[in-house]
Amino acid sequence: MLLASLNPAAVAGGADLSDAVTIGDTALSRSDLVGAATSVAERVGGASRVAILATPSVTTVLAVTGCLIAGVPFVPVPADVGAAERTHILTDSGAQAWLGELPADTGGLQHVPVRLHARSWHRYVEPDSDAPAYIMYTSGTTGAPKGVQTSRRAVAADIDALAAAWQWTPEDTLVHGLPLFHVHGLVLGLLGSLRIGNRFVHTGKPTPDGYAQAAEKSGGTLFFGVPTVWSRVVSDAAAATALRSARLLVSGSAALPVPVFDRLVSLTGHAPVERYGSTESLITLSTLVDGDRRPGWVGLPLDGVQTRLVDDGGAPVPHDGETIGHLHVRGPMLFDGYLNREAATAEVLGDDGWYRTGDVAVIDDGGMHRIVGRESVDLIKTGGHRVGAGEIETALLGHPGVDEVAVVGVPDDDLGQRIVAYVVGDTDPDSLIQFVAEQLSVHKRPREVRLVGELPRNAMGKVLKKELAQWD
Ligand code: MLC
Ligand code: AMP
């Protein structure tokens, strides 16, 4: 069973837990979860796909759990989504209804509310493990986000492999405040907890203070964060010190700067475990609880994972800790392709099961991996969110005051990369930032818009983005 801790027979037989999921002031027991989510399942059963506005709330938890009980694939929609992106996700996914939180604009779809106090004790047959669990939208270098189809089998395999690497057990209390529309917060954090059977505490936002309080008041043992979160934690010595009582701090979704790793060690007493993955592959590499946690390195292949490093021609490169190659991964946690996009799927996922990650890496002679960067300057990681330069450029070109635009990610101490848009045109930079926040999503907005007379281009007319990223 995918959500093993919610086995109705076991829960009815006494395996309850009064605070299985806590978000803000609301706690749900396992029997609340089974009863209310089964009631959700009854209301969505038979749908081919539903959209869930994935706010950090118990409504979202019940919506997701209900879909997994009924075997209805769900589409998590970013809580801060804007108009154009919302329309794209709804149209592309073919979602038939909104389940749970009501979006600002339903796009004409029916709304199915989640009733916190409704209960059903109907017993569902566990859906086939090859069936899709969800479709999650993620950005590419160009074009609109693509729907990543992930099976129930992949989710289960990934959580089990992480449980082995991190000695993650029902005794843990997992804490995080990350969005519930990405792999990190939703799949690892929430579904991981419901599979393993540990307590899950969501802090609403991933603030240092929220994490410190969850360590002190909820007895948090396992904390998840993206590097921006850890960098903010180490800037708040009191909050960091409160995490001394934790068992394990985990960082992922972007590169953890070595100075942040070192500060975590000195302030919390814990060397963070780093792990690497993507929406398409789920998590494939991690350092181990009882192994080497080396700053700047993301670890070894998880159970069932193989990796290979190749040069531009596809030939293997040596595992000497220095030679850079393109990283490919294979394993039971990989996605089943992009929805409605056979050609895009074939570009990254071979018939032989290898996924071309788009990341460049080195591997040392002990099998330890270090991510060096991305192949394309057009995929930006900002605060752990993956954003395509192309989608922001397309959005900005839809503004009447914009003639030409180039979007780049520039290094940023807080966010890892900061989205900067260079614009040729006649308009107010702040209104362009707001335009992107309203069209795409708030987290995709450029943090800066710089108006310029012209963009640097090569002889072919192509914008020199590497040069732009260095302009100051
Ligand atoms: C600002 N705000 C606006 C706005 N400008 N609202 C509307 N319009 C505008 N123009 C508001 C926001 O709504 C928010 O309000 C506040 O300003 C701060 O904005 P923010 O951009 O969200 O905050 P920031 O501090 O920059 O966020 C940092 C962060 C966030 C770390 C909290 O980036 C984050 O949650 N990152 C996690 C990403 C993640 O989970 N990635 C995993 C990908 S999975 P308010 O009131 O809401 O605060 C993956 C696989 C793997 O990568 O390996 O894990
Ligand atoms: P996403 O699709 O949002 O899941 O982003 C996946 C990408 O995030 C990967 O392809 C990497 O570029 C990056 N990433 C994830 N984890 C790490 C990590 N630990 N270190 C460096 N980059 C990472």
TrEMBL record:
Keywords: Ligase. One of its GO terms (molecular function) is long-chain fatty acid-CoA ligase activity. InterPro entries: AMP-bd_C, AMP-bd_C_sf, AMP-binding_CS, AMP-dep_synth/lig_dom, ANL_N_sf. Residues 391-462 form the AMP-binding enzyme C-terminal domain. The keyword Ligase applies. Its EC number is 6.2.1.3. Pfam families: AMP-binding, AMP-binding_C. The keyword Ligase applies. Residues 44-339 form the AMP-dependent synthetase/ligase domain. Belongs to the ATP-dependent AMP-binding enzyme family. This is Fatty-acid-CoA ligase FadD36. It comes from Mycolicibacterium chitae. The lineage of its organism: Bacteria, Bacillati, Actinomycetota, Actinomycetes, Mycobacteriales.
